[in-house]
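re: that chain from earlier
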Amino acid sequence: MKYRFIPAFVMLLAGLITCVLGLVQKWPVQTNLIALAIVLVVFYIIGQIAGQVVGHVQSERKAMEELEKKKKEAEEARQKAEEEERERLERETKIAEENERRRKIAESRYERSQGGGVADDYDDSFDEDAFDEDGNYIGD
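^ sequence. v structure.
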């Protein structure tokens, strides 16, 4: 409760002004005391209201700052997720390109081994088990 001294400060400042005004105007003591009592009560209530308003405004400001912080964190998380997704797609694209390149190599080797009976130094026949059900090359 940082603002608990606001009502007392407002009340005492108004009381000081009332006392000085009573002395300058040369009011009788009884009139000055009655005026001082009324001023103290009224300005204590005004100080209470001012303290509540200041506290409310400060709590709203903190809530807004926290909301902005959460929005910023959410935006950063979204950007990070997008970047990770982009990197994942790039990796998958590279893998798919490499699989396609290997599949073409395997097909060309198979065609060479099947075509024309040309004797090669090695028998590298096409291995259907080297591909998965999606047609991706998984190795010999």
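The first helix runs from residue 6 to 25.
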